[in-house]
Amino acid sequence: MKDLKGIRGKFYIASLIEEGEHEHQDFKFAISDARKIARSISAFANNGGGRLLVGVKDNGVIAGVRNEEDIYVIEQAAEMYCRPSQEIRVTAFRTEGDKTVLRIEIDRSPVRPVVVLEADGSRRAYYRVKDENILAPELMVRAWVASANSEGCVISFSTAEKSLVDMLDDGPVAVEDFMLSAHVSRASAEDTVIRLHSMGILDFHYNGKTFLLTRRNDPESEE
């Protein structure tokens, strides 16, 4: 296997590491499992995109990568274990001690959800929250699927839909609060959420504890 020959990037990589791990950046000490990398790719692609710094420990210490085999595993993760397959950009940088760090750039996917083909045969969508990859809530995944399959619709609100839109005008809303206010079942509430998401009216926002519903034009929405 060939050795990696990266471009000079000591200070650039140091500046990225100084940011720490966050919603759009994750450190990977080593590449050993393509599916684990696929989960990170899914999480970033389902959110606002992001980058992996491979060869960096969780504490920010640069360990470096071994060789081009790591790039093969990363590409395998994006192409074989993500659906739809994701295009990624891989750049190698030479850093302190002549160690090599890989910057893996992942764009937000125009088609969501991006799911991972798990070893047990299941398909799971992940979402980036702060410095963690979490399983995307089922309702959000259903809303993404409905939006992807939507061919447009005439905005004519039902009573429940109008009620939720009115609540969203006052700020983020929990599904449970909408159910109580509109006197609807969970199934009906979730159907309403999915329809309004397909219309481009609402989104999902993580408040640090749970996902809330927000207006699409809300600056704190996931968009």
Automatic annotation (TrEMBL):
Keywords: ATP-binding, Nucleotide-binding, Plasmid. Transmembrane segments: none annotated. GO terms for molecular function: ATP binding. InterPro entries: Schlafen_AlbA_2_dom, Schlafen_AlbA_2_dom_sf. This is ATP-binding protein. Residues 21-134 form the Schlafen AlbA-2 domain.
